[in-house]
Design brief:
- The chain is α/β, with parallel strands linked by helices and 316 residues long.
- It has two domains: 3-238 and 278-303, Class I glutamine amidotransferase (GATase) domain (Rossmann fold, 3-Layer(aba) Sandwich); 241-274, no CATH class.
- It is built from ten helices and twelve strands.
- α1 crosses α3 (47-59).
- The longest helix has 17 residues, at 278-294.
Length: 316
């Protein structure tokens, strides 16, 4: 089944050339099924690139997925044309009464910034609170994990002595969790961040469980036991050259970054990166859409945030 996006969104043309099954809104209206409504709060600077990365992951599912984009109203985008933002993005005030089957909140380059100094923190907190009553399941990525853990659970992020950047092996702690069905016992995932959520603090929250972790990168997949929230501390949606681009950007800025670990062959930046994480990344998004969104969300959209069917997989 296809992903349902606007036909003039730049990602539509890119994904169509890759034979990713996309459907325009007009075509979708002629299908007699209810698509999953997914909202993406895109906090990344290069928004069009991030749209493409996430839509690739959401498209690889038998479900029809209708995608909308949300922005923080007071925050202009320096790397994305204003006409793009006005055409494809909504403000929270325009969807306050809407209901969504799923919400994805991206990372942001704010790992070194205290939450009290994030200029859009009040709006970010408002969206997280709104999601509790208007969204069936929310997936937080990278910095958004740190923000959600702080706002929703009172867990302070911890600054790392050096940036963690690279592709690291992870192991399953809860191999029978639906979110990792089909995963290998050990799998790779990219990370790129300056802070972490302390593992001991996560374990003190009874409603949360750590599903997968890394000896180097720490907890990677954390879930609320009822499937309503999923926290992914890395970047399983990253494309092959994302870490390379970040490394070269930091070099150009004079930050003297370390070479991303376990990414370039022989840690040689002149060589093309070896991709070892995409299969599990795709499976992660498929499992979220199936088990935490499709299987939990009520058919009647007006019941989203009120009714959650937890019987299908005995999630609790």
């Amino acid at each position: 089944m296809p992903i349902n996006i606007e036909g003039d969104l730049p990602a539509y043309q890119v994904l169509s050339r890759e034979n990713v099954f996309c459907m325009s809104s007009g075509q979708a209206l002629r299908q007699d099924i209810r698509p999953m409504k997914i909202l993406i709060l895109n906090l990344m600077p290069k928004k069009i690139e991030t749209e493409i990365h996430l839509l690739r992951m959401l498209a690889n599912t038998p479900l029809q997925v209708h995608v909308e984009f949300l922005r923080i109203e007071s925050t202009p985008s320096a790397h994305t044309p204003m006409e793009h933002m006005e055409r494809f993005y909504k403000d929270l005030k325009h969807i306050t009464d809407a209901r969504y089957d799923g919400l994805i909140v991206t990372g942001a380059p704010l790992g070194k910034v205290p939450f009290s100094e994030v200029r859009f923190w009040d709006q970010m907190a408002e969206i997280m609170d709104w999601s509790l009553t208007h969204v069936t399941s929310t997936m937080y990525l990278c910095w958004a994990v740190q923000a959600a853990m702080y706002h929703l659970y009172g867990i302070e992020k911890r600054q790392l002595p050096v940036k963690i950047s690279g592709v690291y092996p992870h192991r399953l702690i809860k191999p029978f969790s639906p979110i990792v069905r089909g995963f290998d016992d050990v799998f790779d995932a990219p990370h790129s961040r300056y802070a972490e959520v302390p593992e001991n603090a996560i374990r003190e929250i009874d409603s949360l469980e750590i599903i997968a972790t890394s000896e180097i990168a720490g907890p990677y997949i954390i879930a609320r036991r009822d499937g309503r929230q999923l926290f992914v501390t890395g970047h399983s949606e990253y494309e092959p050259l994302c870490l390379k681009d970040e490394y070269e950007r930091d070099l150009a800025a004079g930050l003297n970054p370390a070479v991303p670990e376990h990414y370039f062959p022989d840690d040689d930046p002149s060589q093309a990166p070896t991709v070892t994480w995409k299969s599990h990344g795709n499976l992660l998004f498929q499992n979220w859409l199936n088990y935490y969104v499709y299987q939990l969300t009520p058919y009647d959209e007006t019941r989203i945030g009120i009714d959650v069917d937890k019987s299908y997989m005995n999630l609790v």
